[in-house]
Amino acid sequence: MTTITVIRGDGIGPEIMDATLHVLDAMQLGLSYEFADAGMVALEKHGELLPAATMDSIRKNRIALKSPLTTPVGGGFSSINVELRKRFDLYANVRPAKCFPNTKSRFTSGVDLITVRENTEGAYIGEGQEVSADGETAVLTQKVTRKGSERIVRYAFELARKTGRKKVTIVHKANILKSTSGLFLKTAREVAAHYPDIECNELIVDNTCMQLVMKPEQFDIICTTNLFGDIISDLCAGLVGGLGLAPGANIGADAAIFEAVHGSAPDIAGKGVANPCALLLGAAQMLDHLGKPDQATRLRDAIVATLEAKDSLTPDLGGEGNTLSFAKAIASRL
Fold this sequence. Notes:
EC number: 1.1.1.41
InterPro entries: IsoCit/isopropylmalate_DH_CS, IsoPropMal-DH-like_dom
Number of helices: 11
Enzyme class: oxidoreductase
Protein name: Isocitrate dehydrogenase
Pfam family, one: Iso_dh
Number of domains: 2
CATH superfamily of the largest domain: Isopropylmalate Dehydrogenase
């Protein structure tokens, strides 16, 4: 029996989590759930966004499945998700993007790539933010380390080997950002030399964005720094139908958190119309991580079959189903 920490989240989070757990239960995987609070629900119940009990649960179980959280505007964390990544050193953000049938996608075939994003340093972390007293100048510190660069690039190449992928594209801006992006690129080249069986190429980030829009099938695994990865992974989601089909994994040496990357969508919360696919696909990533790749494939195949059959799809996918009926249709194919 494997116990995972389950964070039901805010907004539509509880609805898509209930749907996801319904499907996982139908698979009879021997999973047990330890429920924990975070976000606005935790603030209301416990007076803090990330209670100690939640952190202890993740630390103990080492695996968490998480619905979207709302970070309140104003003081406190800039982002609960960023705070979780910092506290557990979840250095690898892994975002697959793949074409699915019967979606409002720019591409109906050919896109099957993974963005591997460094998750703990760089401009995105927001270190050293400062605004001058007159409000005229803002400053931000951007720090990139050899250690951070080495381990994320190594993760990308190991993922390529593990999944049978053939190419890793290193994305950078070393032509201009010669210190930070330059160190990342130099380190990436050193790591790539240890993987002669995997093709490695380099692209400047602006050219990468253009190439993704024009010819996304040329990409297999993209490895890049934090801010570039944040932008590129959402661009890739847009190629295949949007964030409703975008899962994400945040992986470290001692813990891993799997999630839907879209927001908590408070405008549709409680209406039962939210698409659970992103969290279900996040659960498939979790099964891969747990050493159950056959079960992960089984889950993804059931999602694809349900989309192909247009069976109880949610309104965003052009159907007349609801969150739970969609989940039940997927479960019926398992």
